[in-house]
Amino acid sequence: MPSPPDSPHSTPQTAAQPDQNVTATAYELPAEERPASASPTEGDLEHELPGAEAPSSHDPYAAFRYRDYLLYALGSGIAAIGGQMQAVAISWEIYDRVKAAAGVRQAELALGLVGLVLAIPVILLVLPAGQMADRYSRKKIVLIGQACMALTSMALAALSYYQGPISWIYVILLLAGIAGTFSGPASSAILPQLIPAELLSNAITWNSTRWQMAATLGPALGGFLVATLHSYALIYVLDAICVAAYFGFMAAIHVQHQQSAREPVNFQTLVAGLRFVRDTKVILATITLDMFAVLLGGATMLLPVFAGEILHVGASGLGWLRAAPAIGALLMALALAHLPPMRRAGKTLQWAVIGFGLATIGFGLSRNFWLSMFMLALTGALDNISVVVRHTLVQVLTPDAMRGRVSAVNSVFIGTSNEIGGYESGQVAYWFGPVASVVGGGIGTIITVIAVMLIWPQVGQLGSLDQAAEE
To answer: pTM (2 decimals)?
Structure first.
């Protein structure tokens, strides 16, 4: 939908612009925001890849033609690989040490507690973090957050090497969670400053692809290193190096802070993102659907139990089980990047989440490693559809001046559902067993889809994502 120059959905002026010397038609997604823009300046052209040519229509790699987005994608991708490696190492170290000291049931509770510890900073701090992302330099916030996360990884390495108490692992994870809570909204909100608005859907799809590639390589590599080197500390050091690489790439990005009208720091501006999501029913419905699907249907925190007690595949198998959803999501993301935009995004989203619930039930009932891998891969593929729809709607429908706060609300819904879902899974597994926990979560996911269909019928009526701003 064409937007006037002063539209809140207009492309931020810091986004890289197409090369004015290239006469070919620039890539555009059908009916995406088409803000009027001035001719690029020399400074704008410096942000574009040297020698880049204008992409042809339907070019799936259009976003990578912009230097700043390429740096952002490379840096965050490397950091994601390190983070996934570290997640495998943390879960297996806690499971292994607590099981040896107190048994399997206590290990299940200890794994669930990881999710609770990581959720606390999001619940308490993400709204102020979002407000900071709208008032101050998003780039500087990301840099400070990543520096703090590198320090926490080194602290984990020292604690693991000297076999410090398990309780201190939770303390360090809490500090890492605080750093991630402030870095996350700024990192999400900076994206529209890196590329033109008409390429947001393309960039978001590739963001999902990049994340899934990292979530495939990271767990597999982390599980392999744990199984072969028997060193958790080394993996934590490698994660710190990956985070440092992201710091370097982010520092090289040429993006300026968008000085918007300063709103007073008070409760009203703090909760403005919540009000925006509440009033934008399509965003509220898709976030709610995704939140409860992850809260109820996630089995990630219990994968060490399935790997060790049910499938008997050890740390190496755990790495592949954690990678399986990402493998499926990666294949789906590649397909979405090369296929035309969804024409019936609402119905596609609803059926994808129902399929996610069914695949979760299948994993919970499986006793075969390869069948379990397939079911987890299927959950990842279907969940990726939900991720692309939700992120695209949030970016397209949110004014730039509020993107930090709306991204923070998104983190509250989705980030805490991942972590609290892990805690919930551990509690249910403690009382009823891991199989009942996972199968019950899959059933709950399907019930959630039915409830969302009844409460917000407009979700099923959602057509092309490129036309969402018109609806």
So the answer is: 0.65
